[in-house]
Structures are given as structure tokens and as C-alpha cells.
From TrEMBL:
Localization annotation: Cell inner membrane
Protein task: Part of the tripartite ATP-independent periplasmic (TRAP) transport system.
Taxonomic placement: Bacteria, Pseudomonadati, Pseudomonadota, Alphaproteobacteria, Rhodobacterales
Protein's UniProt name: TRAP transporter large permease protein
Coiled-coil annotated spans: none
Membrane topology recorded in Swiss-Prot or TrEMBL: Multi-pass membrane protein
Amino acid sequence: MDGTVIGIVAFACVIGLLAVRVPIAFALAGVATVGTFVIFAFRTGTFAPERALKPTTSLVFSNSFDLIHSYDLSMIPLFIALGHIAYRAEITTKIYQAARVWLASVPGGVAMASVVGCGGFSAITGSSIACASTMGRICSPEMLRMGYDKRLATASVAAGGTLGSLIPPSVLFIIYGIFTETSISALFLAGILPGLISLLGFVLVIFVWVRRTPEAAPRFEGQITMRDRGRAALDSWPAIGLFVIIVGGIYGGIFTATEAAAVCVSAAVAIGFAQGKLDLRGVIESLRETCIQTASIFLIAAAAKIFVAFIALTGVAPSIVSAVTDAQLSPVMLLAAIAVIYLVLGMFLDPIGIMVLTLPLMIPLVENYGFDLIWFGVVIIKLLEIGLITPPVGLNVFVIANVVGKDVAIDRIFSGILRFLTVDVIVLILIMAFPVISLLIPNSM
């Protein structure tokens, strides 16, 4: 039986299983295992299942074992733990509070502070959904109480939460780096400028929104002194310090990304205890939540590794590369096609699922075109960011909807999201058109 046909059928089966809500890990591992068994069983031309059992089990267990024992994968639980500990120690919220004080007199200042707070949270933890959930509980209810437009109060936080995928550290960058065998440290650095441009773009959306519709954001009536601003800025030093350790340590060659994560976790625990914001119970609870999230990600990653090995066995990737080459698509047309695929998948699937499902086919394709894999990683992560707020299944939007409950209908949140999506698309085009935006910092190392 032709391996390419088996590979195409396997992809169709995975998509079908995901459509009926089978967990991505079980869908990938199950289809890959059955597909591998079929390939080995028909290797001699006739169906011989007794010859397929041993090579199938060997491929499944060896690939999953090798991935779970990967040194790079150890930074995922470290960065997840850092996010939980920093939140319980009130380190992440200090960035929002400082921005809240500094931007209080600016029209729409609380919404802008929410976006900046999301950026600060993203600079410590690596999950967009965690960022949206955490900052949503803090920011959206406050804006609603102040009389902000419901669309602005929710959409700004949902969009700001996507920054967790691009601003380092990022769990998606880690998974991309492991599966493409590219430098995770370089990927982290490549995400800085695109992440900051996205953040500034969101702030600009809020500024224009409030400028055109002043009633969307009531003006602040209180008095903020320079002493208040100075105190707020000083209180945010732990978050800034942790970000400097991560980015400065990696850029300066002092730490690897894994070492930076370990140092930051230790520093966050020490700061939390020293400031009296963290206790042993908080640490234990943070570690418990870390274990739950890490187990879920590792299970998906292990299943994806099995699926990647299966796809390599089918030879479907070289067939697609050959077909695209014969079609003589220009690099621009290829990137446009990839963008459409990811944007469509982003409407229905979670970012990790999209990545592990598509990378086995996309990477050989872009390598054949000579694209830089670090730059392409930033493009992919940006596309996945957009998927987090794209209807009908924008995960960040549903997270915010759960936070605000019945106060804001989900269609109202999506209507507000459209303005932020416009900026996201513009930033995506800039990243595609000017790779230097992503490569400037890593190439200067």
C-alpha cells in the first residue's frame, strides 16, 4: 500500500477526530500508531500483522521516550511554574498597577494599562491563555465598574493576552524549537520586536477608539502625583528584574533558556517570601497547577513526536514538496497559502494542536524554499496568536467571556476584537515582508 496515500488518509482521520472533539494527543497518537502498523504490515506486499507489531511498538515508544527526556523540554514546567509563582507573589500584577497609575490621565488609560499589563505578564510566563485568564480577572471587571464600553473592556484584554505567545518566554516557541531543531534562545529573542510592535499597535487601537468615541472610556477624575508614579514604578522592579534575567541573560550568553528559567523561578520564590506575598502553601499550589499543565503539554508533545515519525515513514512530506515545486509557486504565494491554512485552522483548533499537526508538512516545504526557520517560527506564532481571537472559536475570547459571565455577551466581545485583528494582520504582513524585524536581535548576538 502506498505510504503517501496512508499519510493523506491519516491527516483526514486526525481532522475528523478533532472535529468530534477527541483530545489532540489521543487523535495524533492513535492515528499514528494504527498508520505505522498498517505500513509495516503491508511492507512485503501482503498483509502480515505479525511482522508489524515489533517495529510499530519500537517506533511509538522510542520516539515518545526520546522527547520526554529532552533537555530543552524541561524549560516548559519551569516557565509555567514561574508564571504561577509570580502571580501568587503579586509580581505580575505590579506591572499592570504601575501602568494603571502612569496612564490614568490618558483617555482609555485603564484599557492601555491592561494591554501593557498583559505584555508584562507575558514577559514572565509563556502562555497566552493563562495571560488572558489572569489579567481578565483583574482588568475587565474593573473597567466594567468604571463604565467602560463593554467591547473595549473585554476585547482589549483578550487581544492583549495573545502577547503571551510572542513575547518571550513562550511555550509555543519552545515546542516549535524542539520539533524544528532550531535554537530556542534565538526564537525567544526573535519574538521581542514583533511582540513590542503588536503591543504598541493594540495601544494605538485603544487610543483611536477612545478618540473617536470618547464615551467608550470615562475620564479619570482623581489626582496622580509624581510621587505616586515613582512608587508604582519602583514596586514593579521584580517583574522587570525577571525579564532582564531572561532576555539579558540569554542575549549576553550568560544563560541558556533553560538555565534562565531555573534562575527566575528561584528568584521569584525568594522575592515572594522576602516581600511576604508568598508562603509554602502558595508554592505547593503553584507546583500542583504546574504539574497539571505540564502533563497536558507533554502528552500532546509525545503524541506529536510519534505522529512526526509516522509522517516521515509515509513519505507524504517529500510528495507535497515536489507537488509545490512543480506548481512553481512564488514565495509570496506560498506564504499567503500558509497564512490562509493557519488562519482557518485557528478558527477551530488550539495553537499547540495546530502546530504539532502542521509542522511535519510545513517545515520541509519552507526549507525547500530556503526560508529562515527562526523568522518562519515568528510568522507561525503570530498566525497562532491571531487564531486565539478569531471567531468562531477564539480561545482567549471564551476565556474572557467566562471571566465576565453574563455581563457581556460573547458576540459583543468578538465585535470589539475586530479592531485589534486589523492591527494583528498589519503586523503579520510587516513580519512577512521585513524578516529583519524578527532577525535583528538574534543576529546581533
